[in-house]
Amino acid sequence: MKVLMFGWEFPPHITGGLGTACYGMAKGLVKNGVELIFVVPKAYGDEDSSVADFVNASDVEVDFYETVYKEQMEKMTYIEVGSSLIPYLGPEEFEKYIEKLKSIPNYTSNPIYAQKYEFSGKYGANLMDEVARYALVASKIACEHDFDLIHAHDWLTYSAGIAAKKASGKPLVVHVHATEFDRTGEHVNSLVYNLEKAGMEAADKVITVSNLTANTVINKYGINPDKVVTVHNAIELSELPDIDEVKKNVKEKVVTFLGRLTFQKGPEYFIEAAKLILEKDSNVRFVMAGTGDLMEKMIRYVARLGLSSHFHFTGFLRGEQVDRMFAMSDVFVMPSVSEPFGLVPLEAMRVNVPVVISKQSGVSEILEHALKIDYWDVNAMADFIYGLLHYDSLSQMYKRCGKQEIMELKWEKAAAKITGIYKTVINV
Q1: Spatial contact of 366 and 409, defined as CB atoms under 8 Å apart
Q2: 55-79 confidence digits (pLDDT tens)
Q3: Which fold has domain 2-234+414-425?
Q4: Which of 78, 62, 66, 79 is nearest to 141 (CA)?
Q5: Kind of pairing, strands 114-116 and 355-358?
Q6: I need a surface site. Which of 19, 73, 373, 403 has the fewest CB within 10 A?
Q7: CA 184 to the chain's CA centroid
Q8: Is residue 389 a contact partner of residue 284, using CB atoms and an 8 Å limit?
Q9: Which residues of the chain form CATH 3.40.50.2000?
Q10: Residue 408, number of CB atoms within 10 A of its CB
Q11: CATH code of domain 253-406
C-alpha cells in the first residue's frame, strides 16, 4: 500500500507538535508495511529518508498551458481564501487571467508557461497564499505519482488533499490534529473554518487525535459521525540522550510549562498557580519554554505580579533541548484551555517527570498516572503542583507508574489502527 501524504512540517524543522506527530506516525506506518510519499512545502534535505520519499513542493513546476493540467488548473478556483493563487493576483484577477488564456487560439499548444513557487513552510503573513499555491502544486504531484490513497494533515494541507483527490480520483483521509475552535475559542477565523470544513466534507474518512476533537468535528462542523474515527497519538520511545549529568544550577525546585504561548495553551493560569505556590513556598522556580503571540503579555503579567525573580522565559526549545529541560524539572504542567491531544506530557513522563494536565485535553483520555484539573481551577493546579514538590512518595509513584504507562503508547500501535482505516477506504 502506498500513501501520498501532505504535511506542513517535518523534523528537524518544526514549530510545534504537528511535525513531531507526523514523524512518529510515518515511522509507525513504515513498520506496518506502508510506503509513503511525503510532501512538504519546503524540504531541507536533512529529513529522515528512511521513513518516506520526500517531495519538495518548492521544486514542483506547474505548467499552466499543458493540456493535462488545464482542467485541474481551472478547478483550482474553488479555493476561496481571499489571497493570491499565483503571485500578486487575487481571486478575481486570477479568474480574469484564466479567461484571457482561454481567449488565445489553441493556447494549450503554445510554448509551455512554467511556474515554480518558493514556499517558506512557515506560519507567516503570507500563509493563506502558500496554502492556496500548495493546493495548486498538489494537483500536479498527484498526476505524477502512483499511490493508493491520500492522507492530509490539518487545515493547511486539506486544500492540497482535495486537489490531489480531484486530480487522481483516489480516496482522501484527513487527519485533524486541532481545529479553529481549539486555537481561538469561539472567535474563529471564517476562512480557516471553511477550509477545515471543506476538507472534512471531501474526505472519505476523518481521523481525529481524541474523542474530544471528534465531538468538535461532529458538532461544530456537521460531519457525519460514521466517517469520523479517533486514533490517539503516541510517543517516540527512541533512546534518550545522555541527560543523567544535567545539572539545574539552581537549588530551588523547578516547575515547567512547555508549549506555545497562546490562548489555547492557558499560560496565564500557570502564572496564577505559580503566584499561589510562591505565597506558601519561595523555594520554587517556574519556567515558561516556548514562544507565541502572548509571550510579551505573559512577561508583563509576571512582572506586574512581582514574580520576575522566580520566572524564566527560555524561548522555543527543540530536540535534545526539550529533554534537557525536563531533566531539570521536578513537575511539568499543561493547563491547556483546549488541547486536541497534547504530546508534551508524554515527553515529560518519558524523562520521569510527573505531570499535571487539564481535563480539557485529549491526552487525559488515555493517561491514568497524571494529575488532572480543569484549566481554570488554579487552586487545584497549585495544590497538585505543591503536593508533587513536597511529598516525595507521591512524586516517585507518578514518576514510576507514568514511565511504565507510556511504554505502551507506541506509534507502531497507533499506525496499525491508521493502516486499518486505510484498508477500509480502499476496500482491501
Answers
A1: yes
A2: 988 888 776 555 444 544 454 433 3
A3: Rossmann fold (3.40.50)
A4: 62
A5: unpaired
A6: 403
A7: 15
A8: yes
A9: 2-234+414-425, 253-406
A10: 11
A11: 3.40.50.2000
DSSP state, 112? P
d(CA 188, CA 175): 19
Q: Tell me the backbone φ, ψ of residue 368, rounded to 5 degrees.
A: -100, -35
Helices within 203-294 (DSSP H only): 211-221, 267-280
Strand runs labelled E in 154-214: 172-176, 205-208
Here the cell at position 2 is 502506498
Cα(126)–Cα(128) distance, integer angstroms: 6
pTM over 0.70: yes
The set of long-range contacts for 96-104, using a CB threshold of 8 Å and a minimum separation of 24, is 98/73, 98/74, 101/64, 101/65
Cis peptide before 354 (omega within 30 of 0): no
- Res 246 pLDDT > 90: no
Return the pLDDT at 61. 75
Q: If pLDDT is split at 50, 70 and 90, which confidence band does 92 have?
A: very low
* C-alpha cell, 297: 503579555
Nearest to 334 by CA among 285, 381, 397: 381
| Rounded-to-10 torsion of CA 279, 283, 289, 292 | 20
